[in-house]
Amino acid sequence: MSTAGRPPSSGRRAFLVRKSLIPLLIAVLVVYSAQQLLTPVLAPLSRELTLTETQLGLVIAVAATALTIASPLWGHALHRIGLRLVLLSGLGLATAGLTGFAAVAALGLDDTMPTPLVFALMLITRSIVFGAGVAALPVAALAVAGTATTTETERTRATGLVGAAQGVSMVLGPAAGGALAAASLMLPLYLAPILCLLLALWVLATVRPPAASAPAAHSGPGPRPWDARLWPLLTIGFFLYLSLGLVQVIIGFLVADRLHLGPQETAGAVGIVLFTAGVVLVAVQGAAVPALGWPVLRLLRTGSPIAIAAFALLSVSESLWLITTAFALLALGLGLAIPGFTAAPTLVVEQTQQGSISGLVNATIGATFIVGPLLGTALYEIDPAIPILTALGAVTAALVLAWASPAARRTQVTTVTAPPGTPAEPQEER
User: Fold this and answer.
1) What is its membrane topology (predicted)?
2) Per-residue exposure over 22-57, b if at least 16 CB sit within 10 Å of its own CB, e if not
3) Contact 223/350 with Cβ under 8 angstroms?
4) Are 78 and 214 in contact (CB under 8 A)?
5) Measuring CA to CA, which residue among 388, 242, 243 is closest to residue 322?
6) Dist CA 213 CA 84 (whole Å)
7) What is the mean pLDDT of residues 56-63?
8) What is the C-alpha to C-alpha distance for residues 210 and 233, in angstroms, rounded to an integer?
9) How many C-alpha atoms does 181 have within 13 Å on its Cβ side?
10) 177 with 40: CB under 8 angstroms?
């Protein structure tokens, strides 16, 4: 009997989803690992270049601002120029930004460029150009996760895999960057743009419309963040990521002050804390969330209380093992809740708006990396406990919205639809 025109079986559909996502997951993993290569060297490099802590903070904050602004633009571009061109454009900007950053740093270390000019060019290369380019990768991956899935469970699993790819980069990148920095501070800076360039060449050679699905074109305005269906869900995500940003930026100060450690001991202790949290995060998002198959509300309502308990423990932790336990618990809680957030907004918009909604989701995440580091350090100067308690309050607000918001409850009754016959129809490249 002919099967033409019939929807694919669940096993076949899952295979097609994985096939659509694999190129995007590889792209996210590589480019975010290239970014994370720089994490161990930014502070010592800034000292060598005679940049202040405030100037380094501005480099990071401006990069987050560029990512926040660019993300919705990449979401709209997916509908207009297609997945492949968005990937290549984003990787081109990322490669150019990291190449320029390495060149500026090399000239600054050689004393051939004055410090004010070094700082200005870092803002242009590492912050604006790279920040705008790297935003394209998670936007594209989340859009494909939205268009290549036909049920809430599939979509939650797919968005969890995108988060897991970013989590793996947070484990691999700093470890590799630290090892390279032991030989030279410039080695991670040289390797990062090479990785982005190789990835761009791989995308150019291998990624075609049949290999990776993209959002279909749509007419009319895209979803707006103030839409009553969306703003509570985006606010939940903002609070979740804000809580992470508040404590992530102060972990070094917290470890040094509570354990009374020197710079080298602090770096080693922070490495233990973040590595443990990264491993837990990858395990939860890459394995536990797909295996559980929970709906988005259950993920949000289960993960948020665990994160609240983690912040409560962190507020009273006075030993390395307790701080590490608190961050592992935080990774467990946010590892459950965050895939619920990233999937939830995709459930209340049309399939043809998945590119646009992925841009809004990524912009929401980027905004927290503008606010979180600046607010966390400012609050820490007032009292070391305040940023932790603020983070606890942010997750509590997210939990309240997850229980009380009509928009959150609406995700329980939304039917996910897809074009008949395939999980997603690939868009023609133009």
Assistant:
1) Multi-pass membrane protein
2) ebbbbbbbbbbbbbbbbbbbbeebbeebebeeebbe
3) no
4) yes
5) 388
6) 10
7) 83
8) 32
9) 19
10) yes
Q: How far apart are CA 85 and CA 68, in angstroms?
A: 20
Residue type, 291: A
Euclidean distance between CA atoms 21 and 162, whole angstroms: 9
Neighbours of 97 (CB within 10 A): 26
Tokens 């984003």 found at: 90
The terminus-to-terminus CA distance of the chain in angstroms comes to 37
Number of Cβ within 10 Å of residue 60's Cβ equals 18
Q: What is the DSSP letter of 404?
A: H
Question: Higher-confidence residue: 220 or 233?
Answer: 233
For the CA atoms of 272, 276, 282, 288, what is the dihedral angle to 10 degrees?
180
Which domains, from first to last, does the chain contain?
9-212 (1.20.1250.20), 225-413 (1.20.1250.20)
Contact 188, 80 (CB under 8 A): no
DSSP annotation of 349:
S
Q: Specify which of 103-107, 141-145, 426-430 reaches the highest per-range mean pLDDT.
A: 103-107
Average pLDDT over residues 334-359: 78
> Which residues contact residue 374 at a Cβ distance below 8 angstroms, ignoring those fewer than 6 apart?
57, 61
| Contact between 146 and 17 (Cβ < 8 Å) | no
Q: Which two tokens stand for residue 417?
A: 């639809």
The two tokens of residue 221 are 């305005």
For residues 245 and 369, the answer to whether their CB atoms sit within 8 Å is yes
Rg of the chain's alpha carbons, rounded to an integer?
A: 21
- Report CA 235 to chain centroid distance, whole Å: 16
Q: H or E stretch including 93?
A: helix 83-109
Q: What is the pTM of this model?
A: 0.76
CA 265 to CA 258: how far, in whole Å? 13
List the one residue out of 354, 382, 333 whose CA is nearest residue 75.
354
Q: Collapsing DSSP states into helix, strand and coil, what is residue 353?
A: helix
Distances (CA, A) of 67 to 149, 158, 229: 26, 22, 24
Mean pLDDT of all residues belonging to the chain? 81
Q: How many CB atoms lie within 10 A of CB 420?
A: 9
∠ Cα 426 225 131 (to 5°): 70
Q: How many CB atoms lie within 10 A of CB 168?
A: 22
Whether the CB-CB separation of 156 and 299 falls below 8 Å is answered with: yes
CA-closest candidate to residue 83, choices 263, 212, 180: 212
